[in-house]
Write a structure and sequence with these properties.
about 260 residues, TIM Barrel, 8-stranded parallel barrel, about 15% strand, globular, binds 3-methyl-2-oxobutanoic acid
Length: about 260
């Protein structure tokens, strides 16, 4: 089955088809996620936290994003693949933004980039789109601006968020992530624009949803944001499996005859 294209992805809104997106950062998980039949895979800069162990999304580099996007790109056959532009790869002028986003599209088998911002990134979004680089915008809670926002908090400024979403659409974005905003506001934005809204902590009225894979699978440690639902408990399963392996190595039960050669 060929990959979902950017126009097809955008068209899901008019077709009233809800969009399921999830992050992936490597070949093995991207394969599994793609086989499950979701519409979009995001190589998110959340990798900085869930894979690299940093306490924010700021440290991950462009080279590291591309390295992981290549793994995901090799695995995915069906879903649209979007790669996050890490901080500050799109803040250095439109020329550098095109250069950096161009590297992502050239070096990884992906179809689009995502960047955080609305009104203040409209010029950059328009420049990327003119260069043939599809852009997913990201408004509401913008984790790359954590120090300016003062924490991972629900964003409630209706006028500002509506303006961000409309500016991103007008600049040519093909979809917008809405992170951590009240459900009613997410609905107003979703009704006001013609491109899909992909919510994370933005309620059920968005055109689609995205979650961090490690949160969804129950791998992430520590307190989880309220908007996360864990659909599996892999932390327990992995610990149980590795503990059993350890015990069988110690007791001599593993490897058994069937795992050996005569
Ligand atoms: O980096 C990421 O995983 C994201 C999603 C949470 C939307 O930006």
């Amino acid at each position: 089955m060929p990959r979902i294209t950017v126009p097809e992805f955008t068209g899901f809104k008019a077709a009233h088809r809800k969009i399921a997106m999830v992050t992936a950062y490597d070949f093995a998980f991207a394969r599994l996620v793609d086989a499950a039949g979701i519409e979009g895979i995001l190589v998110g800069d959340s990798m900085s936290m869930v894979v690299q162990g940093h306490d924010s999304t700021l440290p991950v580099t462009l080279d590291e994003m591309i390295y992981h996007a290549e793994m995901v790109g090799r695995a995915v056959e069906h879903a649209l693949v979007v790669v996050d532009m890490p901080f500050p790869s799109f803040h250095l002028g439109t020329h550098r933004a095109i250069e950096n986003a161009g590297r992502i599209l050239k070096e990884a088998r992906c179809q689009a980039v995502k960047l955080e911002g609305g009104v203040e990134q409209a010029e950059t979004i328009a420049a990327l789109v003119r260069a043939g680089i599809p852009v997913m915008a990201h408004c509401g809670l913008r984790p790359q601006s954590i120090h300016t926002l003062g924490g991972y908090k629900v964003q409630r400024d209706e006028a500002e968020l509506m303006a961000d979403a409309q500016a991103a659409e007008a600049a040519g974005a093909f979809a917008i992530v809405l992170e951590c905003i009240p459900r009613g506001l997410a609905k107003k934005i979703t009704d006001a624009i013609s491109i899909p809204t992909i919510g994370i902590g933005a309620g059920a009225d968005c055109d689609g949803q995205v979650l961090v894979l490690h949160d969804l699978l129950g791998i992430t440690s520590g307190t989880m944001p309220r908007f996360v639902k864990t659909f599996a408990d892999l932390k327990t399963d992995v610990t149980r499996a590795v503990t059993q392996y350890r015990d069988e190595v110690r007791s001599g039960a593993f490897p058994a005859k069937e795992q050996g050669y005569e």
